[in-house]
Design a protein that fits this description.
heterodimer; A: mainly alpha; 2 domains; two-stranded antiparallel ribbon; 77% helix; 1% strand; globular; B: MetI-like fold; BPD_transp_1_N (chain A); transport (chain A); membrane (chain A)
């Protein structure tokens, strides 16, 4: 119980720090804060700029600005984008679903594929065929998602013509969406599978020398039974933790795929915002991604409690 | 028994090979980075005719600006490796200091440092670097520093747990009872004994830093005066290298990134697994 409240406190502090960073950065950076806050994609006279400065409270003292900022955060107000012409929060939310549509299936597929292949490979770590598999997975793990996307786009879309080159799908039914999402989800799944594979393999190698495994073997269970009845559950815990801890990294991988495939998700939103120096969208995206990362950690903590009750009780 | 020794040999040899493959690839790129000025056919900034396909005077053709791609690639090794090494040195030094202090002194210090580490770990690093790099003028050193200062937490965690494992070992206690200072114990007893976790972590951090640099540069946030592989990919993608099927433009820098990251991971993982050499046997 004590552990749980400590964890919750840690998440809240993490969010507090991240949100405060988001307040400090535009004001600390060189240049006019109003430019850093609005972005560079607007045309305005000096008068209306001054008016806006007052309206945004930039003439106030920093502590007051900080309070106003939190007031905005609690109302889910992340500012206004001059490039996309709309409030940042609703722009991001409308794009988010497409990113999640890419991310969630990939995470699920790769969790299954990676943990199965990784655990068998970990158990038979001295077998040469599994060593070869490990090298292949390591090579995929070393490949940035944007580069894998470039190669896949070239082979499957340009050369073979199997999939669309551009990812926009404003209209069209489920089949059309599937058609657009097949390659991106495959790439994301390949990348994440390689990651899960390496983690799971290492984890099983560590786990399999423990006494309970020796005991299970002594009972006369087959290798497969030992692996899936005993080792698997314990060995998959690090996989879960790292999935949550690296959520930001994993999400970034998806964003890069979206950029290459010109998809309608957050990746291209950030990229467009970057090209037009539309900072409010960048700040908003950073905050939303952070919230998602913290939530992922909290969710995994919750799962941990179910899978391994020892953890929530002790420590 | 002989059977076991046989297997141990086989295992040791195959492990050695993996490590050796990694080291060979890595040394090759290290050589390229150091000798870029000598082995590169041209200055990467000289402009020839643009969009030349590979031929005998330009093995990998030229890009949209007419720069020789092979020369760019060789000099790019320098940029990418310096960012990776520099960032990893910063991250490793920070991580080792924080990890050892935390694991050795325990108590309140440990609580605070680990809370900071946990919070740090939750900050999405790539999006944060994107924002900072977008606000400031893209600069090579800045990107290296940012990666370095954001990449230490995992090293700190690993170092902390290995420090905790040995801090109560009898050889440490005996040095302590002889009256040596904490500083002495940390520097000459603990540090040498956790080297085997620090070194693989250092290699993996270089890999991760280079991976991230490539991603950030791919977004066009790289230093325009220092062309890294990620930036070459960015130009190839933005200026139509992909659409016009100029594989010689976008394929080589991508493959170089993959090769170096792969070699570093191979070294890092096989060093880490050496710990489990007996376990690998079965």
């Amino acid at each position: 119980m004590k552990m749980r409240s400590k964890k919750i406190a840690r998440y809240l502090i993490a969010l507090f720090v991240i949100f405060s960073l988001n307040f400090i950065i535009p004001r600390l950076m060189p240049g006019d804060p109003i430019t850093n806050l609005l972005g560079e994609d607007y045309v305005m006279t000096e008068e209306s700029l001054q008016e806006l400065r007052e309206k945004m409270g930039l003439d106030e003292s920093l502590p007051i600005q900080y309070l106003n900022y939190w007031n905005g955060v609690f109302r889910f107000d992340f500012g206004y984008s001059y490039h996309f012409k709309g409030p940042v929060s609703s722009i991001i939310l409308s794009r988010m679903k497409w990113t999640l549509l890419l991310l969630i299936p990939s995470i699920l597929f790769s969790a299954i594929l990676g943990s199965l292949m990784g655990s068998i490979s970990g158990q038979k770590s001295s077998s040469n065929s599994y060593k070869t598999l490990t090298l292949i997975e390591l090579a995929f793990y070393s490949t940035p998602t944007f580069f894998l996307s470039l190669i896949f786009l070239y082979i499957f879309s340009f050369k073979l013509g199997l999939f669309p080159i551009k990812g926009f799908y404003y209209s069209g039914g489920i089949l059309d969406i599937l058609h657009h999402f097949f390659l991106p989800i495959s790439i994301m799944t390949i990348f994440l599978t390689s990651r899960n594979y390496m983690i799971m393999r290492g984890s099983v190698i560590q786990e399999k020398s423990k006494l309970y495994v020796v005991y299970a073997k002594a009972k006369g269970l087959s290798d497969r039974q030992v692996l899936f009845k005993h080792i698997f559950k314990n060995a998959s815990l690090p996989l879960l933790t790292l999935l949550a801890l690296d959520f930001g990294f994993i999400l970034s991988g998806a964003l890069f795929i979206e950029i290459i495939f010109s998809m309608n998700g957050m990746g291209n939103l950030i990229y467009e915002a970057l090209l037009s120096r539309d900072y409010p969208v960048l700040y908003g995206s950073f905050m939303i991604i952070s919230i998602m990362a913290v939530l992922a950690n909290a969710f995994v903590d919750f799962l941990y409690g179910i899978i391994d009750p020892r953890i929530s009780d002790s420590v | 028994m002989t059977h076991h020794i046989e297997e141990l040999k086989k295992y040791a040899i195959s492990k050695l090979n993996l490590n050796a493959i990694g080291i060979t690839i890595f040394l090759l790129f290290l050589f390229i980075a150091i000798a870029a000025g000598i082995i590169s056919p041209y200055n990467p900034w000289i402009r020839f005719e643009p969009y030349i396909p590979p031929n005998s005077s330009h093995f990998l053709g030229t890009n949209d600006m007419g720069n020789d791609i092979l020369s760019e690639l060789l000099f790019g090794a320098r940029v990418s490796l310096i960012v990776g090494f520099g960032a990893s040195i910063i991250a490793t030094v920070l991580g080792v200091i924080i990890g050892i202090v935390s694991g050795y002194y325990r108590g309140m210090m440990d609580e605070i440092l680990m809370a900071i580490t946990d919070i740090y770990l939750m900050i999405p690093r790539i999006p944060l670097i994107i924002i900072l790099a977008a606000l400031m003028r893209p600069n090579f050193w800045l990107i290296m520093l940012l990666i370095g200062f954001l990449w230490w937490p995992t090293t700190a965690r690993v170092v902390r747990s290995s420090t905790m494992q040995i801090r109560d070992a009898s050889f440490i206690l005996s040095v302590k009872s002889l009256g040596f200072s904490d500083k002495h114990i940390i520097l000459s007893e603990i540090l040498p004994n956790i080297n085997h976790v620090i070194i693989p972590k250092f290699m993996l951090t270089i890999a991760s830093a280079m991976f991230s640099e490539a991603s950030i540069s791919f977004l066009g946030l790289g230093d325009p005066t220092m062309k890294s592989w990620g930036m070459m990919l960015n130009f190839a993608f933005m200026k139509g290298g992909l659409i016009n099927e100029m594989w010689w433009w976008y394929l080589p820098p991508g493959l170089c990134i993959v090769a170096v990251v792969f070699s570093l991971m191979l070294i890092g993982f096989s060093l880490e697994e050496k710990e489990n050499i007996v376990l690998g046997l079965e």
